Structure formats: C-alpha cells, structure tokens
Amino acid sequence: MVHGEDIEDIEDIIGQGDESPDERYSSRKLVIPKYKRLRPKLSEAAPEADSIIPGTQRVYVKTWGCSHNNSDGEYMAGQLAAYGYQIVDAKQDADVWLLNSCTVKNPAEDHFRNEIKLAQSLDKKIVVAGCVPQGERKTGYLQGLSVIGVQQIDRVVEVVEETLKGHSVRLFGAKKSDGRKIGGARLDLPKIRKNPLIEIIAINTGCLNQCTYCKTKHARGELGSYPPEEIVARAEQSFQEGVVELWLTSEDTGAYGKDIGVTLPQLLWKLVEVIPEGCMLRLGMTNPPYILEHLEEMAKILNHPRVYSFLHVPVQAGSDNVLLEMKREYTVEDFKHVVDFLKQRVPGITIATDLICGFPTETEEDFEGTLKLVEEYKFPSLFINQFFPRPGTPAAKMQRIPADVVKKRTKKAHELFQTYFPYNHKIGETQDVLITELSTDRKYYVGHNKSYDQVLVPMDGDFMGKKLTVEITEAGKHFMKCKITDISSASRPGGVPEPLKLGELSGCGGGISNETVKNRMYHPLLVVSLFVLITSVMLRLYYSLSSVITR
Description:
This protein is of the alpha/beta class. The strands form six sheets. The chain has a six-stranded parallel β-sheet, sandwiched between helices. Helix 7 runs parallel beside helix 8, helix 10 packs across helix 12 and helix 13 packs parallel to helix 14. The chain is globular, with a radius of gyration of 30 Å.
C-alpha cells in the first residue's frame, strides 16, 4: 500500500479481479489455529508515571517582581512544604523548578525566559507562574510547560505532582463568589516567609485603571478585594508567629474595597486595633485618583504610632498631556495636592514616586515638566524607569521616541536625583527604629524609623526583631547610619513571641522547619504509599517469573 493515498473504505484495497474473501478462505475451514503461549518480556522502560510518590521531591522556587508576587511565591512554597516537598536554594539539586514571573518590564521577562532555558538544558521539570504566563498564554517559549495562574496558587501541589508525572497542566481561571471576582486564594494557606519578621498581605488583586503602557492588567485583571475580616485574621495569625512588620500590597491599595462596599481607611482602622505595641504597618502603592477620596482619614492613619508615615504614590510623568495619553485619570495638580496635603498633616512623611522616561508621546517640554516636579519635591525615594513597550498594550502600537533620546532623558532624571541628599538634615536626631533585616554586606542591622527611612545599625547586640533608640550620625543618599544611645532600650514588641526560623512553615500550629520536611518520607502516609508501590512491583515480577517457569 502506498502511503499518502486516500482510501475511502477498506474494501477499496480489493480489486475487481481479486478473489473474494469467501473464495480465499473456503479451503481453510478445517484449519484450527494452534494456541501459542507468548513468552513474557521483562520491560526495561522507565517506571509508569503513577509510580511517582508525590511529596518526596525537591523544589526550587524563584520569584521576580513586586511584593504581591513575592507573597504568592511564599504561599506556593508553603503549600509544597506542607505536603512534604523539600524547598531548596540550590537549583541544581532540585527535581522541579517553580518560576514565578513578573511582566512589568522587559528585563524581568528576559531573566524569566533565560531561567526556563537553563532549566530545560539541565533537563529539569518546570512549572511557571505569575503575570507573564497569565497575560501571555500563547507565548511560544511557554508552550508545553505547566502553568499556575495568578488566582490558582492554592493548586500548586496538584500542578507540581502532575508535572513530575510528565504531564503538562495549565490553570488560568479566576476565583469567584456569587458570580463576583474575589481577591484570590485563601489568605490562611501555609506559607514560608522569606523574612520571618515580615508578613506580606495582598489585600486585593487587579485594579480599576486602563493604563496604556501596563501589562499587569492583562494578568491580574479587574479589581477583586478580600473581606476585611479575612485580612485582619491573617494579620493576627502573623503576629502570633513572631512577625513584627506588616506590609499591605496590591496593584493599587487605594482602590481596595470598591468592589465590596468598603474603603481602605475602614480596613486600616480595623488593622491598627490588632497590631501589637511596637509592631509596624507599611502601606503599599496607591494611585492618586483613589487616595484623593480619603486624604483626611489617610492623614490620621499615617500619623498613628503603629503605622509608618510612608506612602508610595506613582506620578509617572510631570505633564498632563502625557498622563492623558497614559490614561492615568489624574492631573499633575491632583498629584501635587495629595503630596502637599499629606506633608502638611503628617510630620516627616516620606512620599515615594515613580517616573517613566521616554513615553511615546513625551515631548522635550513634557519631560522638562517631569524634571521640574522632581526638583520641587526632592522625593527621597524615586523609581526612574525607561519606557519599555510591552506586547499587547496600546502604548506598544504608538510611534516610539528614538532609543538614544529615551536613554538621554533617563540619564538626565538619574543625574537630577543624585544632586540632593534627603537625609542630611536628620543628622543628630534621636529616633526609634525597628530592626528587621541585615545589610547585603552583613555588617549592619537594617531598621526603619517612623518615616520608613532606612537606618543602618551597628551589630553591637542581638537586635533582630527589636525596636531601639538611636542617634543619627551620618547620612547617605539612600540610608542613614547611627549610634546606639541606650542598648537597654532594645526590646521586642509586647506580646509577640520569637519569630519562626528561616524556612519554617507558617500556618501549621507553630511551624514546620525545612529540616523536618527533609524527613517527610517517613510520614506514615508516605511509608504506606512506598509499601504499596514496592508490593505492586514485587507482585508484577513474581507473576512474570512464574509464567516463565511454568512454560
């Protein structure tokens, strides 16, 4: 038979001059077929997928991007550890790589793509998560990989298990209640905090904006808020596990609750009631349109002794024309009103902001307006970004400014930022700082004062997780240094126990360490699974050998 010919029916194989089937077999009616016992072959193939014992493998978790993404990464690592998987830092030792991506900028996605290529070159099982696969489902380099959507992180164990079996699983659905989108996976899931002293709570997902340059909206979607009682419950649990600093995060905290009939200030007042004395709350990014509605209440909250006097309000550009093309839904004057109002009513407040240099419609005059805004307010924390066209966004279709012009403007903004030192006037001040980290060179403790300024503290004692009184002795561009005026002032917040150890599992009655997870294969359920697997293999071998012997 010639391959490639179309055969409409099997009868087409027999020509008109050929014997009919009856004629062909009529002389063989008395032939009785002889039964032949086939010799069994012992298979040398790899074990079947269902022979894999879930919960005994090692998983490497890597997260890029914002604090919301980091919280998602902590939750996924926690669920895997709770099930028995060992979370490892050495990627080469892992059986599975869980890569949690960010889609805000091209470089972040490039790093993500390169990590996938590396995993593939090492023949590792791969699960991808985060905003890139959620927002770009048909991207070529993601095809064939298992995917966890941003609202499906509570199913990470299922996806990893199926991936280990050689299957590709893709979960993208949004979580809903009574037909309405909700914040996402439950907040009371187990997690492994990167810093046991800091709890990150995503209070909502998505936003109400339609910014023309933003890819995150494609991934996180429309606004979905968690009920206040769930957020408060998670905060209380965190403090019971030794957390001393609470971060509230989302794509836009100012929009919180608009979908469920509550407001951000209402949530914050409920939270400060449960924050122990000495612990602190840091509020995440809010866009100007929504914070404008709550300025009076926000000023009162930011003055509260257990809330950092800090707010991140992105302006992006100092030109109304550019803001209009970006669809930012506010003017430069709106932004200035927010900053001026809070500066007048919250002593020492830190306002952080963002800039995008080289947006397609930005003229030299527009850019000069941005520089003028920076010069006027001298923001101590300024995130300067070069415009990157993100695929699928309206801005990506606009006529771009020449690359050399974009780089020149970005450089000019950086140079202006370096001309002022926002902390020099604080030298000699006495401040209370809460210690939560170590510096990258591991020579100092890192703490924050009420304004959330970064203060480097000498390592003259065990101060981690404690608040103490210091005197500022030196100021740099991004930090201050100090001397400890009274070591006896160092104390942990009242009623807060010692924190979990690094790598210890949150939400499991006091925590489970990664060391414990290493021994999970001795868990009774896993022992039974292993016994059943071995028994089935032995029985299969027994019957195969028996058939050979009896032959």
